[in-house]
Amino acid sequence: TMSFVTMDCLFCRIVSGEIPATLVRETDTTLAFRDIMPKAVSHILVIPKEHYADVATLAQADAKLASDVLETVAIVAEHEGLVADGFRVIFNTGEYAGQEVSHVHAHVLGGEPLGPMLA
Ligand code: 5GP
Ligand code: ZN
């Protein structure tokens, strides 16, 4: 049975298939899909299928699952051809960072020069 938080969460709805997304990779525990408003030529979001609010919560609750997310980040970056030129991985965490979706997600950005991080 799904919790209220799960039912209320946009990315849980993508995991369940209730909301469509352009999937890039799926594993037993993670999902990668294209950001709906890409900020770079390649902009992919990588999430654990299980709901955690942010990367700090996930890392402390389930280190193996956090590792699974990072493994999917690495494989997606490789498949997208981002490794040679480089890419950026961002976990916005909480209000000050502007986290808008409260289901932990890695932004994987690349495919063009990205400039300084805070430009
Ligand atoms: P945050 O600001 O929480 O780190 O990033 C949330 C990201 O989710 C944003 O880059 C935004 O474009 C993306 N996003 C929001 N709604 C949807 C959606 O319905 N589908 C997809 N694929 N991405 C979304
Ligand atoms: Zn969720």
Automatic annotation (TrEMBL):
Coiled coil: none annotated. A motif (Histidine triad motif) lies at residues 103-107. Signal peptide: none annotated. Residues 10-119 form the HIT domain. It comes from the Bacteria. This is HIT domain-containing protein. It comes from Phytohabitans aurantiacus.
